[in-house]
Amino acid sequence: MHTDPIADYLTRIRNAQAAGHRVVRIPASKIKEAITEILYDQGYIRKYKTETDENGHKVIKIALKYDEHGEPVIKGLKRVSTPGLRKYAGVDKLPKVMNGLGIAIVSTSKGIMTDKKARRENVGGEIIAFVY
Questions:
Q1: To the nearest whole percent, how much of the chain has pLDDT over 90?
Q2: What secondary structure letter does DSSP report for 70?
Q3: Which helix (H) or strand (E) holds 126?
């Protein structure tokens, strides 16, 4: 039983990249699908699709993205808010990751979005993770 499925999700991506894998399969949930959609929209992953495995469980298949030198596009994935210590920020206190070069994934009342979109929508929320 995973106590923090989002941390598990980020760790699976981190480990797959460290091992040089092209594809990683992760058990699906709505929040993981939303985070995957953000990673795709921001250009951190090549593509993804949700499918059902042989046991009938939904899984997200993510094609990881590497640059021309074989280095992963995602340099860092950091879990910010954990089940034991939630981190919240108002719209005026949303963090900028690497001076705007990275993204913060924020869970707001209007759904899961990047810090930039949350500022545009004028909402704060729980800071889930940093990606750079």
A1: 97
A2: S
A3: strand 125-131
